[in-house]
């Protein structure tokens, strides 16, 4: 197809094709799989040639994939860094090759802000804060023992969600985080860590950094003879269909949304970067929160 027609019938040129290399963290969660699909679908719709690589949850595999995109001379590189530190060398190689880099969903920590053009994604500290605010609102007279199921150690998202949550509950004498353990954003990690935490601590509320770990935790809570959502309340982050279904059933209590549907925004951003336009250092995604009634209303239209 050469182009679209405007309502007056004048042909308008199709958006120029360019090549975008994208390196994903892996397939650790339902959210992640939905994010991959969003990027692949949006590339097709935006006339972008996508070269996709799966980082398999490992920094070295991600760095090697970025190097092969540099060799291949793609026009723009986008990636979701599995951890925050240790990217300066490979991003320096992309910069030396003249290939602009966009970070998607997770950030890196570097002293050189010129190594990437923009970060597209959620405000993870705000997500943690919203989860903490819910715990404060629903604490009653307390005391409330909280278990935190953290995401991948060393990732910006786990650090930021934890920081936002801690700030929101700070100074409230009813609340105490009695244990915090990493579950690596997976269902099996959440289930295993929850099982161990339940054996060691009395727990009233679980803050899971994502829905997959919350669902794992819920299984461990049931296996230990408690009723999830009632004996032990659970707040998590993402808003994937499985977790929304548990929320509607009253087995999970509150979800802070984190949208994986970043594909269209990424294509627009990458196109601008490729065209030499100045782009904002940070592009945020719009998100909400769900209680049981809101989840019931949103569930039928949920795409992931
Ligand atoms: O970086 C975003 C997080 O990574 C999502 O909350 C989680 O589900 C994913 O694996």
TrEMBL record:
Q: What sequence ranges are listed for the domain Periplasmic binding protein?
A: 23-276
Q: Which domain of life is it from?
A: Bacteria
Where does it reside?
Cell envelope
Protein family according to the UniProt entry? Belongs to the heat shock protein 70 family. Belongs to the bacterial solute-binding protein 2 family.
Protein name, entry field: Periplasmic binding protein domain-containing protein
Give the lineage: Bacteria, Bacillati, Actinomycetota, Actinomycetes, Micromonosporales
Show which stretch of the intact protein is covered.
Answer: 419 to 722 of 722
């Amino acid at each position: 197809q050469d182009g679209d027609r405007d309502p007056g019938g004048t042909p308008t040129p199709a958006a120029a094709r360019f090549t975008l290399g994208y390196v994903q963290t892996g397939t650790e969660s339902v959210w992640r799989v939905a994010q991959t699909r969003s990027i692949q679908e949006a590339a097709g719709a935006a006339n972008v040639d996508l070269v996709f690589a799966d980082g398999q949850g490992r920094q070295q595999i991600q760095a090697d994939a970025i190097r092969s995109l540099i060799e291949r001379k793609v026009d723009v590189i986008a990636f979701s860094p599995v951890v925050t530190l240790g990217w300066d060398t490979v991003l320096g190689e992309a910069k030396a090759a003249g290939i602009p880099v966009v970070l998607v969903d997770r950030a890196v920590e570097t002293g050189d802000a010129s190594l990437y053009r923009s970060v597209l994604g959620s405000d993870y500290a705000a997500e943690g804060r919203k989860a903490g605010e819910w715990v404060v609102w629903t604490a009653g007279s307390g005391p409330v023992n909280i278990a935190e199921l953290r995401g991948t150690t060393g990732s910006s998202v786990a650090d930021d969600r934890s920081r936002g949550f801690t700030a929101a509950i700070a100074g409230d004498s009813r609340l105490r985080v009695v244990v915090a353990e990493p579950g690596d954003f997976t269902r099996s990690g959440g289930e295993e860590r929850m099982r161990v935490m339940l054996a060691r601590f009395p727990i009233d509320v679980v803050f899971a950094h994502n829905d997959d770990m919350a669902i794992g935790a819920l299984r461990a809570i049931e296996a230990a003879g408690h009723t999830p959502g009632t004996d032990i309340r659970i707040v998590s982050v993402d808003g994937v269909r499985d977790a929304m279904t548990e929320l509607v059933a009253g087995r999970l209590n509150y979800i802070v949304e984190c949208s994986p549907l970043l594909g269209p925004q990424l294509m627009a951003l990458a196109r601008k970067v490729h065209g030499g336009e100045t782009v904002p250092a940070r592009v945020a995604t719009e998100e909400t929160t769900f209680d049981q009634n809101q989840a019931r209303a949103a569930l039928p239209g949920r795409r992931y």
